[in-house]
Amino acid sequence: MKAEVWSDIQDLIETYFTVPSLKELLLRSVADKKEEHSIWGELTWSVHDLLGGSNPAIHRTAALTELMLLALDIMDDIQDQDNTEKPWMTVPQEQALNVYTGLVTASVSELGALRRQYPAAPLPDPAKVCEFITEAINGQHLDVTNAVQTEEDYVGMVQRKSGTLVQLALYMGYACTDANADEDTVGKLNRLAVYMGLMAQLDNDLSDLLRFDYKNDLVQKKKTIPVLFLLDEEDTEFPVIQQYYKGEIDQPQFLKHKPQCVQYVVDSGCIEYTRTIQNLYLHHADELFAEIPAASANKEAFREIALARFEL
Asked: What pTM does this model have?
């Protein structure tokens, strides 16, 4: 995280939150996110540079990206009861919800303040930002209600849940440039964001499949790409997964087969299948990215942040 962005994040919290205990919780939360090497702000700044931007508010805008995406991460953790060691998960839920709502509302408020401070500069539209957030919440609801039944359902859900978040991060950057008026470039960036969201979600899905605690996707009966692969195996020598999903055995019975299940997942080919799909998305993303006009040095810098981490 760039030093200017980190400084602005701390300044925003000091400015908007006056209750000492809430401010302290927020500062611990953003410090934790900083330790994760979050790239959301970098995506915003990098796409701004990619398109030749020179906006004086880009560091502040990148800080707002970090805060909004942290807020949505917090809501995701609350809903999934995941990442229990995080600062926002070690306090009563009503306090965590204050962190979530506070970060979102403060960020949108600051966008309005920036537009007043820099009236001649191109800047993100708070209404458009809220549209992205609302669409991501729609996707999150599909996820938490286990609405996914097919691979097509999965892709649609991830496009709305994860792809929209990347679109938001990129919007925060390109909205700070004159390229915001270029519909062709914006369209390509939005499609690129969907591929990035899909690839990131596939990474998460494999991680959640290979952990075997309560939050394992199989234990939660989630239907992700690797799980759908497993469920599609009709003549399996290990029928326990299908029996569990059909309700023929309960969770305690399923967990008795934990070692065999882990081995079956590793041997099944679902990991390789998921990586193949991810690599296909990367190929499409690279083809699309090649069509975006920009200086080669800026393109290399952006690709290093946005796409290189998905290379197998």
From this structure: 0.93
